[in-house]
Amino acid sequence: MDDYLPKQYQLHENLQYKIRISDLASHQSGLPDIDFRQLIASNSQQPVSSVTEASLAQLINNAKELIDYGNYRYSTIGYILLGQILEDIYDKSYASIFEEKMIQPLKLTGTFTNNFKTTNRTTGYNPDGGVQEFFDWNVTAPAGLIKSNAVDMVTYLKAVLGVTNSFADASVLSENPFYSKNGIKIGLGLSIIQDGENEFFFKTGDLLGQSSIISYDRKNNWGLIILINQRDSNLIKSLFSETYEIIKK
Questions:
Q1: DSSP letter assigned to residue 52
Q2: Closest Cα to residue 206, out of 140, 139, 138, 127?
Q3: In whole angstroms, how far apart are CA 26 and each of 53, 71, 83?
Q4: CATH class of 21-248
Q5: Per-domain residue ranges for the chain?
Q6: Each residue of 212-232: pLDDT tens digit?
Q7: Fewer beta carbons within 10 angstroms: which end of the chain, N or C?
Q8: What confidence tens digit (pLDDT) does each residue in 138-194 have?
């Protein structure tokens, strides 16, 4: 990781040349993370508004040890750093990279980055039923900038399950287990589930106003997208479990 970090990051000597890019993507870097509970308490509608490049750099530069390196702990900062590395390499914003590499080649018409002023936009709701604004992502964009719909997500899944395209090639790489302990297997951002002889991959998403899940099985050639406009991780997991049992039958 050290060879790719933007210049504002100066790792403490105890951390230097220990963390790999794959550690960031598989949530086992051991780095400190941004405190979402504190951010939500400060601004429940736009909690990431106070996060800046300077505050992120301070968070990382002040770290003198890796608390739980090599163990799985979901990390927002890991994906922010990955996005900033990409921005440095391509010399473009994360939104521009995503539009160039994903939206344009797949011809996604219902997928948005910074500008999401579309007429058929859903309203998000928090767990208590209150209206929740869509986040205005800033430097934290790589951790959750993208908005999409089921049609575009199915288009993306078809590309992932293809055999002769760059999306399928990248997905196959991300399906390799980079973390495997205590029954938990993680690829590059993907959770890996073994169900008998079948193996499938999934990623959940929870913001304050939405919950979602994407899952697919390359061997048996199925994919599944569930999007709901309220934060309810239990409901999304229940919907997935019921639907998966139907798929198996």
A1: -
A2: 127
A3: 23, 10, 14
A4: alpha beta
A5: 21-248
A6: 999 999 999 999 999 999 999
A7: C
A8: 999 999 999 999 999 999 999 999 988 999 999 999 999 999 998 899 999 999 999
